[in-house]
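Thread: "does anyone have the structure for this chain?"

Original post by V.I.:
We have the sequence but no experimental structure in hand. Need at least a predicted one for the grant figures.
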Amino acid sequence: MTDALKKSNTGLKRRPFLTPIWLAGISAALVVGVSGWLWSTADSTTVLVVPGVAPETGEARAGALARLLGDSAGPGSIGYIYSAAGAAGRGTVAVLSARRGLGVTDVPAGAMQDLAHRVLREHAGERVLIVADAASIPALLDHLGARGAVTAVGPQERDTLYVITVPRIGHANLLRLNF
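Reply from O.Q.:
Generated one for you, tokens below.
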């Protein structure tokens, strides 16, 4: 009987010992791969949303916004400007876009869901300024991830800057500033 056991185990002599080593190597490679993917996609998109105002008051407000956001372009500064408020939006960002040398992309006022998806898809990890009419800001913030945070933007909130940070992994954060 001992000879029969020796003969049947002769072919399996080394195979059982290599299986844990292969499994450990594959597990380690998987952990390194997932960690690298998480590290590379951990950046957040920062979207600044400002209500547009009438063109006659837009220049003074644009100057205040430009002073708030700084005049220099470079790392950590606004890279793209969208206007979803027509002439009011253009007046609000005129000074800022001229100082930074950025163009203003016009978007239809009713396309807030499309705008939010475009910003998160095309400008992931960057900083974007959106000027929108007061009625569409709550919908825009909802589509960016701040669900129910702002229900309406009244006349007293015309000088409010909404800063929403949208990470690729996790929940969006909203900060409301007056300028």
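V.I.: this helps a lot. The first strand starts at residue 44 and ends at 51.
O.Q.: and The chain has a mean pLDDT of 79.
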